[in-house]
Design brief:
The chain is mainly α. 81% of the residues lie in helices and 0% in strands. The chain has helices spanning 3-24, 29-35, 47-79, 83-106, 111-137, 143-169, 175-191, 208-215, 220-246, 252-268, 270-280, 283-302, 306-334, 340-368, 371-395, 403-410.
Length: 411
């Protein structure tokens, strides 16, 4: 294994650990927020109250993501290194998860303070996640391949996090938090093994994201797709979880398995789909994949039984894997070499905004109207962005790069 392949494996493992830790919590969010001090009435059979209780816990973390992804990226571009920052994000993220687990049992902590701790934990976690992905952008070997590695890591983390988290909740509501702390600590230590290939330091700031969008309007295209793709992830993290439990009668373990039906194929197909986009270009995976993905999301609601729902979730996962690595690779294609940290930070800001919109918007529509309306809104949003952005995709000057494969065979 050469140095580039080793670093690709190390950084992919870091991304995996961050997502694994994050998703461990999702299957039992209603129970966790009650244990952390939210009103016990939140899980009293009222679906609207359940959605509201979990909404703010998830929102607090993603506010940290949104506000600080660009800060981490700008710092890494400014100082000319990323690996120590990835390690710091992992270690401090682990501390954040650990404090969340022990604070309610050691101190009389109000739920508002728990939300503040969750926000701080999110600030640290997005540093490890976003900069590990940016460091993958710095590697050679094909942007689709590198982002396929990131996508594979994201998919595997979520695929394993859901069912394992569901089982850990059976041991106690705080056990997934302890497991998440261990995963983030491992990520922080492991990051130190990667080689830093950051381009030379460039003076920049978090506000450079706006300037980058002005100078490279084309980045708005993958940012928009990233927003909508993560919107569906946020939707399933909360609304999907509550839907599976309240309407299909599943417990936390069953919910984790059903979410895993999406995340396992989403993980397994990321790397080959990323390499495929290096061969055929980004337009077909991003546009056609998003269109089909939106339809598949809607089909989950209309599935008449749990086995058919699981099958629909499998198709959602496969189509999501077709879209995700090509979208991230498009960011790498378009970003200037010395502003990759800012570009990936911007992508993760828009993605986090999408995730947050999926949580808040999905919970609002599901609680105020119906689950059916919520599934339709989210699925049709994916279809809408695919149709509207197609002309812009065709305007992008992103070459197909099959020569990368030939060069690798000749080495």
């Amino acid at each position: 294994m050469n140095a580039v392949d080793r670093d690709r494996l190390v950084l992919g493992t870091v991304v995996f650990a961050v997502l694994f830790a994050q998703v461990l919590l999702y299957p039992g969010i209603p129970d966790l927020v009650v244990a952390l001090g939210a009103s016990p009435a939140a899980w009293g059979g009222d679906v609207g109250a359940v959605l509201d209780a979990g909404k703010w816990f998830l929102t607090a973390e993603f506010l940290g993501f949104i506000l600080f992804a660009g800060v981490w990226g700008a710092i890494s571009d400014s100082v000319g290194y990323r690996v120590p920052l990835v390690a710091a994000g992992g270690v401090f993220g682990a501390i954040g998860y650990l404090v969340l687990a022990v604070a309610p049992t050691l101190f009389a902590v109000p739920y508002e303070a728990i939300l503040l701790l969750r926000f701080v934990q999110g600030i640290a976690t997005i540093g490890a996640f976003s900069l590990a992905m940016t460091t993958l952008m710095d590697l050679g070997g094909g942007h689709g391949r590198n982002m396929g590695t990131a996508g594979l890591a994201i998919g595997l983390g979520t695929a394993l996090g859901s069912p394992i988290g569901g089982q850990l909740y059976g041991l106690g509501p705080f056990v997934p938090l302890y497991a998440a702390a261990v995963a983030l600590l491992v990520a922080g230590v492991l990051a130190t093994l990667a080689t830093d290939r950051t381009p030379g330091a460039q003076s920049t700031s978090p506000l450079a994201i706006a300037g980058t969008l002005r100078e490279q309007w084309s980045l708005a295209v993958p940012f928009a797709f990233g927003f909508v793709d993560r919107l569906t992830a946020g939707f399933f993290a909360l609304v999907g979880t509550v839907y599976f439990q309240s309407e299909l009668g599943l417990d936390a373990a069953g919910t984790g398995l059903l979410l895993g039906a999406f995340f396992v194929p989403f993980a397994l197909f990321q790397y080959p789909m990323g390499r495929l986009s290096d061969r055929i270009g980004r337009i077909i995976p991003v546009a056609a994949g998003s269109l089909a993905y939106g339809v598949a999301v809607i089909s989950v609601f209309y599935a008449p039984s749990v086995p058919i729902t699981a099958t629909a979730m499998v198709f959602v996962g496969i189509l999501g894997a077709f879209v995700a690595p090509a979208t991230m690779a498009l960011v790498t294609d378009l970003a200037a070499e010395n502003s990759r940290g800012v570009a990936m930070g911007g992508f993760n800001i828009f993605g986090s905004l999408g995730f947050l919109s999926g949580i808040i918007g999905g919970a609002t529509v599901a609680g105020g109207v119906s689950f059916e309306a919520a599934f339709l809104v989210v699925g049709l949003a994916e279809v809408f962005i695919a149709i509207v952005a197609l002309p812009l995709l065709f305007r992008l000057d992103v070459p197909v790069v099959p020569w990368i494969e030939k060069q690798e065979r000749l080495r």
